[in-house]
Amino acid sequence: MRFLGVLITMLVCVHSASALQRKPEIRVLELEQRIHSLINSERRANDLEPLLFDDGLSSVARANSRDMAERGFFDHVNPDGRNPKQRAFLAGYTCRKGLAENIYQNNLYSRVTTTNNRRSYDWKSMEEIAAGSVRGWMHSAGHRRNILEATYGRTGIGAAIAAGGEVYITQMFCG
User: Fold this and answer.
1) β-sheet with 52-53: strand ranges across
2) If pLDDT is split at 50, 70 and 90, which confidence band does 143 have?
3) What is the CA radius of gyration of the chain?
């Protein structure tokens, strides 16, 4: 009988702990800055100059991430048919040596479990989202090439969080 009491107490504690998990408050501007810092760590590790953070380019990147989050697409070409260079040009932005874009879709959570019709989330921290996104890019040949391209001197990073917990990240490079 004592075993049953201990078991019930443990189940109540486990259920209470998972019910207390709260959705993290992710500050998008801090997330963008953290990604920028991690990108520059990768560049330094490869004997490259760090990328300067460009507010204008970040505005273009942020608008793209918001667009993906709001319209529910994930592509370098938006539903209006505009590619990164066209979007940058329409925003009054030009690059002499070239422009490139990396996009990444992450999530606020790593896992969802459902028990008795109740969802429980394993939420990610801002650091986990930033590090996972940069790691994903570094494991993709094309994205890695953009990050480690020596002719790019400036970058803009924009993030947006969709209602479903998807985190859209756009990084633009300008040389």
Assistant:
1) 52-53, 154-161, 166-174, 99-107
2) very high
3) 20
Domain boundaries, the chain: 27-174
- CB neighbours of 109 closer than 8 A, spacing ≥ 6? 121, 122, 123, 124, 165
The CA–CA distances, whole Å, from 58 to 18, 41, 120 equal 37, 19, 34
Calculate the CA 79 to chain-centre distance. Answer: 21
pLDDT of residue 24: 78
Residue type, 131: A
- Which fold, 27-174? Pathogenesis-related Protein p14a (3.40.33)
Of 169, 174, 173, nearest to 35 by C-alpha is 169
pLDDT by residue (tens digit) across 128-139? 999 999 999 999
Tokens of 175: 């040389």
Report residue 68's pLDDT band, with 50, 70 and 90 as the boundaries.
Answer: very high
Q: Residue 105 phi/psi, 5° resolution?
A: -115, 120
